[in-house]
Amino acid sequence: xxxxxxxxxxxxxxxxxxxxxxxxxxxxxxxxxxxxxxxxxxxxxxxxxxxxxxxxxxxxxxxxxxxxxxxxxxxxxxxxxxxxxxxxxxxxxxxxxxxxxxxxxxxxxxxxxxxxxxxxxxxxxxxxxxxxxxxxxxxxxxxxxxxxxxxxxxxxxxxxxxxxxxxxxxxxxxxxxxxxxxxxxxxxxxxxxxxxxxxxxxxxxxxxxxxxxxxxxxxxxxxxxxxxxxxxxxxxxxxxxx
Length: 242
Hints:
With 242 residues, this protein is mainly β.
C-alpha cells in the first residue's frame, strides 16, 4: 500500500452464542481505513493511510431475570500510524507528529445489580495498556487498574414518590503527561452526586461534580501546560418528555 492510496477494503464481523439461558458469549473483529488524502504533516511529510484493527471477546451473565447482569471482555486494538499533537518547546505552536503504531490491549468488567426495585447499583473495572513501538505510553491514556461505582435510590411510593438520589465514585490511575512519556500525572479519585424529582412527564435534577473538590492535575501537554481538574461545580436542569 502506498502513501497516496485512497481506498482499501475493511471488514467487520462477529459471532454471538448462548450456550445456557443465563450465559451468552461474543467475539468481534473490525477494521478501519482512513486514507491520507494527500495532506502533509507539520514537517512537510505526506500523511500516511491510517489502518486500524480491533478484536474483542467476552461473556455476559444475566441472572435473576435481569436483576444481576455481569459483562466481561478482553480487547486488543491497533492503529497505524497514530498521530499526536504536541507543542514546540518555548512557543505556542503545535505540531502534528507521526508516533508510529499504537497498540492498546486490556480487559474490562461491569456489573449492574438491582437488589430491590428502588435500588440500582452499577460498578465497572478496567485495566489496559497503550504503547507505541518503543514501549512508551501515550499522553493522557490512563494505564493500569481503573474502577468506578454508581448507586441510586428512588422512592416509589409515599409522600416522597418520584424523588431519587445518587452517588458516583471513580478512580483514575497515572497517565503519561507529555508526548515523550518523560513524566507522569498522579492518580486521583473523584466523586459526584445527584438529586432529582420526577412528576409525570416533568423532571428536575441537580448534579454536583467533583464533590470533594479535588485539586489535582487532570491532563497536560508538556511541563509548561498542565491543566487541573475542574473544581466542584453544579448543574441544574428541568426536562419535559413528550
